[in-house]
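We store chain and fold; example below:
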Amino acid sequence: MSGLILLVVLLVFVAVVVIKSIALIPQGEAAVIERLGSYTRTVSGGLTLLVPFIDRVRARVDTRERVVSFPPQAVITQDNLTVAIDIVVTFQINDPAKAIYGVDNYIVGVEQISVATLRDVVGGMTLEETLTSRETINRRLRGELDAATAKWGLRISRVELKAIDPPPSIQQSMEMQMKADREKRAMILTAEGRRESDIKTAEGEKQARILSAEGEKHAAILQAEAERQAMILKAEGERAARYLQAQGEARAIQKVNAAIKSSQVTPEVLAYQYLEKLPQLAEGQASTMWMIPSQFGDSLEQFARAFAKQDDQGVFRYEPSHVDDETRQMAGDEDTDDWFNTATDPEIAAAVAAATAVANKPVDPELHELKAQKKPPAPAAEIEAPATLDPVEDFGAGGVEKREPETDY
């Protein structure tokens, strides 16, 4: 029985010795090994053999890169304002032995050094500089921490200011200031926009007035030219009308003379007509008295002696002169169909088409070119004279009738 107990105790002792002789260190960790209370070596990542009851694992250290966020720290700026700043430190343990033997608690050490360095850096800056100089503060904090923690076996890879919180009153004042700045910029932009709008409007009105003046100028020129052409045509027409009227009167006189010659009127008939018209002459409003000369009969006698021949009985009788064929033809009816011919004169139609082309000429050539690209202009042959005009046929330039003067009276 005692032998069995001794065997069990021996087996237990062997198991304890085996357990004390083997240490399993995971990847990403390092173990500090002491022998009889003294540092011997640092092992990591694997199975490690120890001397039982002589070697022991003092501490296991995480060698991965760690990110530690510290609580907000109250810092006073140069302009005596208290701000709360959150710090995030990223570090890695390069020498686990120094991290164990060099400092009691490296996390607390990093925190305290960060706070002290932060207060030193921010204390030399104003609040506005603190809010706008994050990169400078991060760089200085990293440099100070890296230099202070090198003897602890730490490597500071990154330091960031997570948040900078000014007091509520200062924050409210800053918000009001930012709001005022934004309103100021908005008012400046609005004023600039109105200024640009007024300038563009003024330029547009200027161009509109210039174009309007150009249009009025061209319209006045065209109107003056139209009035000039109208006066010329009217003068030409009046001249042609007077010429035709004179021609008509001459023709009428010639016609009456030929009719009288053809009818062979005797002096007795003329005398009778003369006596028949005397009462009508006396009926005029201005005729209050009519006197017949006493020698009226003698005058008729002399007229008869001059144009008549005395017959066998001593009476003067009028013998009409011989009427030739030309006089008889002139006294006859004439063809008057072409007197009122209103056919269109090609020259007048061409003048009207030219005036219409001038009136349709655009004021702005550039705008006309843009419109011409969209729609081709109508051919000149398609321009027609207005239908309201009634030009007279057989008239030349200026409306004068092309007729040879009649000299055969």
Q: What stands out?
A: Residues 168-263 form the longest helix (96 residues). Residues 65-166 form a domain with the Tetrahydropterin Synthase; Chain A fold (CATH 3.30.479.30).
